[in-house]
Specification:
The protein is mostly beta strands. About 10% of the residues lie in helices and about 35% in strands. The chain contains two helices and three strands. Strand 2 (about 40-50) and strand 3 form a beta hairpin. The radius of gyration is 16 Å and the shape is extended. The model has no long low-confidence stretch (mean pLDDT about 85).
Length: about 90
């Protein structure tokens, strides 16, 4: 059986995923069976075709107390902070 991505009528290229810490809104809290305002991680992904045109957008909400975010960092990086890490106000 084919995967969802294999059924798409375009060839997928890369994607950009942004993961943010937030407080659960009422609807997400009910779906996740957690109290309103509980910490959650929200992953928003934009997948593009091979020409760079966005073709798929998704959002996933994970309860904070059950979720780990793991990034492998290369040892050759001269930077002290992980690539792609940005602080927001």
């Amino acid at each position: 059986s084919a995967t969802f991505h294999e059924l798409m009528p375009v060839t997928l290229g890369g994607a950009t995923q942004t993961i943010s810490a937030m407080a659960a809104d009422h609807d997400d809290a009910q779906l996740l069976d957690i109290p309103d305002g509980s910490p959650v991680l929200v992953a928003q992904r934009v997948t593009c075709d091979t020409s760079g045109r966005p073709v798929l957008v998704s959002q996933h909400v994970y309860p904070g107390h059950l979720t780990e975010f793991v990034v492998d960092l290369p040892t050759t990086s001269a930077s002290l902070s992980p690539a792609g890490l940005r602080l927001v106000n």
